[in-house]
Amino acid sequence: MQQGKRARAIDAKHRNKKWLKVGFILLLFGIAVFRLWDYLWESFREIARISVWGKIGMFLASTGYMLMEGMAVSRLAKVFHTNLKWREGVGCAYYCSFVRVMTFGGGAGAAEIYYLSKKGMEPAHAFDTTLIQYLCQKLTVTILGAGSLIFLFKSIEDVIGKYKYYFVYGVTIAVVIIVAIMLVLLSRRIAELLCVGLDRIGEKKAAWKNKTDQWKEQVMLSQKGVKAMLGEKGILAEMFVWNTLKYFCWFSVPFLIYGERNMGFWYISAGLMAVATVMASVIPVPGGYGALEFMQLLLFGSVLGRARAVSMVILYRVVTTILPAFIGGGVAAFYKRRILH
């Protein structure tokens, strides 16, 4: 009886969180429409003017990202002795994109663990694979963003203007976060000190005890997973290559639609996209919705003009979220009998 009440309370809490996310995203959408109303119709006209080759390029960029993501997932699975085929890794990438949209950014990690476990991977190894892939993505995009800010600073200084110090601070925070995470995962001593701190937090309030115990368990399991990955020579460099390739598929979107064969615009726009992505990662919003769009408008407004920048933001979300989720829905339906049951 007591357990049933507790389960219902947990379900109600999850539902409330979900609706809070929906409300927050709708609020952001409403504010964006209100603030950018004068540019919306012109941005739609800009979208209509994009060439057929530009639209094909966007589709290829979206597909290329998913192919590289599938390669990274299947490669990591082999570290944990699971023979996950490349096409199955690609299916996993699309499936997670679909779940990410359905859960407003909150369920992609759980979806990947579920998918991999249904493909024969032990749940603990599926968790390790998902976490390591996430960390490799964070590490890669942080390196790309920090590198772009450093090496292209003179070229983009006029673009970021009075905000340049905020960008330096934001990228620095992202670097500190990823370094701290890596230290916890690579150093057993630091991990043990973190677990001691979590124990003290759990002792102060009974309601926190279960959560801190879960975090401790995840830290120790993650350490084992990272050590297993590093035990395979060259895997970290290989993951960096796959993640760099996939991100540059997405970062090339501004060039594909408005580059007009100007290769100088390609490396500037790709660098700006990398910086925008890192900056958005340190802004705590559900699924990154709103934060990335804000950074893109801020950076590309003076480069493309406000109307084109708005259209680029819309198309970037189509390429990175809507199209993969649409295809991912088909993947989920196709694998329904094999995976979901």
UniProtKB/TrEMBL annotation:
Top EC class, one word: transferase
Chief localisation class: membrane
Catalytic activity as recorded in UniProt: L-lysyl-tRNA(Lys) + a 1,2-diacyl-sn-glycero-3-phospho-(1'-sn-glycerol) = a 1,2-diacyl-sn-glycero-3-phospho-1'-(3'-O-L-lysyl)-sn-glycerol + tRNA(Lys)
EC number per UniProt: 2.3.2.3
Protein keywords: Antibiotic resistance, Cell membrane, Lipid metabolism, Membrane, Transferase, Transmembrane, Transmembrane helix
Localization per record: Cell membrane
Matching Pfam families: LPG_synthase_TM
Top-rank taxon, per record: Bacteria
Membrane-crossing residue ranges in chain numbering: 20-41, 47-68, 89-111, 131-153, 165-186, 239-258, 265-289, 309-335
Bilayer topology annotation: Multi-pass membrane protein
InterPro entries: L-PG_synthase/AglD
Free-text function comment from the UniProt entry: Catalyzes the transfer of a lysyl group from L-lysyl-tRNA(Lys) to membrane-bound phosphatidylglycerol (PG), which produces lysylphosphatidylglycerol (LPG), a major component of the bacterial membrane with a positive net charge. LPG synthesis contributes to bacterial virulence as it is involved in the resistance mechanism against cationic antimicrobial peptides (CAMP) produces by the host's immune system (defensins, cathelicidins) and by the competing microorganisms.
Family: Belongs to the LPG synthase family.
PANTHER family reported in the protein's UniProt record: UPF0104 MEMBRANE PROTEIN MJ1595
Protein name: Phosphatidylglycerol lysyltransferase
Gene that encodes it: mprF
